[in-house]
Request: fold
Amino acid sequence: MKKIYLYGNWKMNMTVAETKKFFEGFSSQYQPYKNDAGLEVGVFAPFTSLWALADCAKNLGIVFGAENVYSEDKGAFTGEVSIPMLQEIGIKYVILGHSERRHIFNEPDEMIAKKVKAVLAAGMTPILCYGETLEEREGGNTFKVMERQLKSAIDGLSADDVKKIIYAYEPVWAIGTGKSATSEQAQEVCAWSRNLIGIKDVVILYGGSVKGSNAKELLSMNDIDGALVGGASLKPDAFIEIYKAYKA
Ligand code: 13P
Reply:
């Protein structure tokens, strides 16, 4: 079996107290898989919970990261958080370009590209999200949109840096809707993305309503290396169930 990345994006959920409670429950569920070289678990939390997350995650040896960051190191950017601020608390992974950042907060491709470059320059790993809306899919523009999103983020980067990025295909219509892409749809896009990126062994995750019941089918596809999970990552048993189901 291939190595699987199981990354949870908590979005705007989980206070400090809830973070600690999550890990009380998660530790025992994770125990049976802890030494499984075929599994990499990661959790991405809101800024205010990162300190607590870092503490819990370090003990378990799992990946932990932020859900966003700004590209400048400091200055007059009210409400933003910088890379050095994240580094100070041991953060090495950052989600960038999530569809909620793109569509609710209107982050343009150019801003996301700057963030990707800054995160890489700091020696950290960006999890670059991309994906089409329902309207774009139905209009036959899926690949055009994704090509724009992917190319704008990786243009000008060295092959080494392109390879350091973890990619996450998240069709907007599948996020939080309970309606996942089919394994064939997700496989088609992930294979296409790998080709466009031009490096065979980059890591590409699928995100959008991943749960225990659809995990095996999705994660068994050739070009899907793991899952970026929203809703089902908020409860320890639902989160680990995804890997259990894949292994079963
Ligand atoms: P859901 O798993 O809740 O659909 O969210 C997916 C997602 O946006 C992960 O980044």
About this structure: The mean pLDDT is 97. Strands lie at 4-9, 39-45, 63-66, 93-96, 125-130, 166-169, 203-207, 226-229.
